[in-house]
Amino acid sequence: MIRRALLKSVAVGALGAMAGLALPVTAVAQEVTLRFHHFLSPAAPVPSQVFEPWVERLSEASDGRLNVEIYPSMQLGGSPGGLYDQAREGVVDISWMTLGWVPGRFPLVEVFDLPFIGASAQITSRAAWRFYEDHLTEELGDVHVLAVHVHGPGVIHMNAPAIESPGDLRGRSLRGPSRLVNRLIEQLGASAVGMPAPQMPEALSRNVIDGTVIPWEVTSAFRVQELVDTHTEFSGGRGLYTTPFVLAMNQDAYDDLPDDLRAILDEHSGLMLADWIGSAMDAFDAPARDIAVERGNTIVTIEGAELAAWQEAGERVRAGWVAEMEEAGIDGAMLIAEAERLVAEEEAALQD
User: Fold this and answer.
1) Which residues of the chain are in CATH 3.40.190.170 domains?
2) Cα dist. 56→319, 323, 332 in Å?
3) pTM (predicted TM-score)
């Protein structure tokens, strides 16, 4: 305390002397370092192709004053499902997670968990950000949202025999990422096992589960092509399912940024960032699929008349969700229509 007071006295005296000499006093530009926590390996597509370049862009745009330290693979502790609260409570400044890992907590955003809503990751991520701006600012209002996005179309990855119809899933166990995807899995006749993605490889290797649903792009990070030998994907322009993610920032950390650094962060967030993440996920689907092909794994594509049985199960999940929303006083049918409209608009815009 004495040392602090002495330093303050010396500083005041020095400033007074400078003022007496009529020398200009230039404020030192503030530097900020933020801690960013997520659950994936740094080698996975989104961390390596988006988050690391994004951090570099922020540093360059701010002349090195806005710095972000990335902590992948849950290095700062906690569970993947707790990442949102780590940002909300200020344990970290920024976090990234799948919202489905906290079942029922964010009911409105669940519309993007519903079957056959999503197109490509880029298209649907752009739609998800616009949906956030129109419908989710209150639901996600206890953090500052940097991006809302989704992954690409979900694929079924199983040990043989391959899944060609819903009946092939009966009596088998399948990992799902969210309560609605788990509900779809059960509608299709399998036993759903909910767990965050980082727990999936061990569960597959120990035969705790027979398979998993996950998009192609992240299979390499979890060695899924090595742990299973069949894959079932879906045609028709809309995926079996997708999952919404949030890049969340502690509100106080955002508010405390100097105005110019806050403006830089804003410029590099939002729709632009959602688009970037979605595009990266799309870009890695084909290389990850190629690994399965090279290993000789079986790949089944559901299309044409065979798709109808899967869509019928999806409709039952949608109807159940709409009924739940109605009981809570929420117009679920309107939210589905809104999500589908936004996806269609973004799809048309990107095709022009």
Assistant:
1) 30-152+242-282, 154-241+288-351
2) 44, 46, 40
3) 0.89
